[in-house]
Amino acid sequence: NVAIVESGRILLTFDQPQFNHDGGDLAFGPDGLLYISTGDGGSSDDNNAGHTGGDGSKPAGVLGNAQDRTKLLGKILRIDPLGTNGPGGQYGIPASNPFVGAGGGVREEIYAYGFRNPWRISFDPVTGRLFVADVGQGKVEEIDLVESGANYGWRNREGTFDFDPTAPGTGPFVDPIAQYAHPGVTIGSPALPQIGLSVTGGEVYRGGNVPALYGKYIFADWSTSFGAPNGTLLGLEETSPGQFAMSQLTVTGGNPIARYITALGSDENGELYIATRTVLPPQTHPTSGLPTGGIYRLGLPATPVQVTLEANRDNTIYSERATNSNAKGAYLFTGNIAQGGERRALVRFSLSPIPAGAQIQSASVKLTLDLSNSPNVPFQWHRLTADWGEGTSNAGEPGGQGTDATVGDATWSRRFYNTQSWTSPGGDFVGTASASATISGVTTWTSAQLAQDVQDWVDGTASNFGWILRDPGTDVSAKRFFSREAPTFNDRPKLVVSYVSETPPAPAALDLTSATDSGTSDSDDVTNDPTPDIEAVAPLGTTLKLFADGAEVGSAMVTTIPCLITVSTLSDGIRSITATATDSQGGTSPVSDPLLITIDTQGPTAGVPDLLAGSDSGASDHDEITNVTTPDFQVSGEAGATVSLSSDV
Fold this sequence. Notes:
It is a single chain. This protein has one helix and 41 strands. The longest helix is centred in the last third of the chain and has 12 residues, at 448-459. The mean pLDDT is 94. Helix content is 2%, strand content 33%. It is an all-beta fold. The protein starts with 24 loop residues before the first strand and ends in a 15-residue tail after the last strand.
């Protein structure tokens, strides 16, 4: 996608009388034509020198550039960059432009007018509608849906409120679909929300990373003040045709955010990006001297998860009894004894509940002390670098000396008795301790290195052989802890891990496709197709699964947004359709909100028509005779069905 510099050419130029309100966007529409937003020429009030009717004294009651259709300023223009019928032959003017042939000097490039400073325009790639964010003067910011030939009111109005009612504007004016007030400005009844100083246009979100925002127009306000960056991310949802509800997005760390929000844009997958900075141009960072711009992608925050893991292997090894173990005993032993021997405890935890790709935030090992005949001193966990075994040895009570090792047990000299040896007697482990803590009752070891050990095991950069617990000193310090075979569950060793995992968000926007929905409207979710097509929004590359009343009825890899699935046969009745998304690492989203659809494959039955009593003029109610040329009939049938009567004449 590298542009060929030599291919550039100038299409259109026009004078800008002031330094600001340049407008600032280009967008190709679904018709293949180029749309251009232009500001009113700058300064303020659209009545300075270079503005129609204006001069340096800035008089009231003048037309201004935005209302002057002989000017290209304050407009949305539409041209054909491949055409040649425009002035100078560098571009074409589409014949369908609203002011073609208007005469009187009216510029035929104009598609819509009455804008002050339209700071960014965008087309919804699904509906083709054109959204414009128009920066207000001192009170109101607005979002407009652009219609061909429409007048959006500036300088007569700011939003829906009078700005200069004496200006000779050429209404009628089209109202914005959303507007808000500047901080400290109370206007409207009910009063508009006071959000910020300058609207920053965005786009209708058509990505899959945040399904709940699908179809909403996402935009921003630049800042609540000039002195400190404080931008706000906003959304517009169409609640009914042509009616929009505005809301502030929920943002990790709060919204507003401590940055000026200057622009929004999307990638080829419909995901949104937000351009920001923390100082006003042309300044740079006051300390580093570097630019402060940053680009952020809109996404969901990872949700912290805490799991408590059980040991799936443990053992004790004894220095003075190099062939002893206590694999299945109820206790683990560690520390130095008075007779000069040392015990070390080995523990391994299963990490299978932690999904691949998880980011480990913290890790803590917990042991419950059962017996101590010596002072409490610090004991250290070290990460083991070689595998080891847990056989069937059981020293019973008290167990402090262990018992003869069985096949596969770890001992002081062997990793697996009696076949594989440690490189160093007493265990192969990393010399630097992963964690250290002084023993006291239920003892918890927590450290960044424990978390890093777990991270390495989850990532597969190191093998999970567990840890070994030892006393690095020489004083008497022997301790007895409960092992994973302890009769009381809560006494057993525990590994508590907190992690965040970017599992997919719950799918959203579940809907019957219009081709499948056979009801009276696209929103009644009624179909006579027992294998309907259902679409949903989920992140690209995930596997989308659909469920009807909890039973899986279809799945597909998400390659387009929305993703369409033809479900397996559904029986008649109301069905609750839900969805999940699963990523390539096996992480599965929460279940979506349900879509209730009605499957109705049976045609309605109709009773025999009967003349109403008021129309039956025969001798009895049953002779079906009438002298009324437009008689009334009654007929029984399925509720909601349309009844048609026909006759042979």
